[in-house]
């Protein structure tokens, strides 16, 4: 009986075709055993390359193989914000996140945001030296979140309030 025989039903032809392609269970297990069989003498207990590795080396290779280097470096940068800018400046600013090479910093007031904008070159250089894997190209400083007075039933056109928050 052949799957190409015109007198064979379709379901029987499909079964025969699958059996030819994939083989039955006994052949497959035999082939799997044959494929997994190692060469005699390849498993030597004290062969080169079987030495235990240090935990730091294993974690380093794991992070590089899984592609975690950049996210871990970004997290280290956010955690080390106090050492990068100093304790007093870190009290009035906090890193929000890093997206597409832009580090976003939220400041307590617009005055602190302005001062940090003036220090942008120094901060960017320090980040590039201490955390090069983070991939930070530029830093963006934001002031505090203030409500918008431009919408609503009682709004009028005009300049509106200026810097009343911070």
From TrEMBL:
Location of the region described as Disordered in the Swiss-Prot/TrEMBL record: 31-52, 140-166
Source organism superkingdom: Bacteria
Listed Pfam families: DciA
Name of the protein in question: Uncharacterized protein DUF721
Biological source species: Salinibacterium amurskyense
């Amino acid at each position: 009986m052949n799957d190409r025989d015109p007198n064979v039903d379709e379901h029987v032809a499909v079964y025969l075709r699958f059996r030819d392609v994939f083989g039955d269970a006994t052949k497959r297990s035999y082939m799997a055993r044959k494929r997994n069989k190692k060469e005699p003498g390849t498993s030597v207990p004290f062969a080169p390359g079987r030495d235990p590795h240090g935990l730091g080396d294993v974690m380093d290779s794991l992070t590089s193989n899984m592609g975690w280097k950049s996210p871990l470096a970004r997290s280290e940068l956010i955690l080390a914000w106090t050492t990068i800018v100093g304790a007093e400046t870190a009290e009035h600013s906090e890193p929000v996140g890093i997206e597409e090479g832009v580090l976003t910093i939220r400041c307590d007031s617009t005055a602190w945001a302005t001062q940090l904008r003036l220090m942008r070159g120094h901060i960017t250089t320090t980040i590039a030296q201490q955390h090069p894997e983070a991939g930070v190209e530029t830093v963006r400083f934001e002031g505090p979140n203030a409500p918008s007075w431009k919408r609503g039933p009682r709004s009028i056109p005009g300049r509106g309030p200026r810097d009343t928050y911070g």
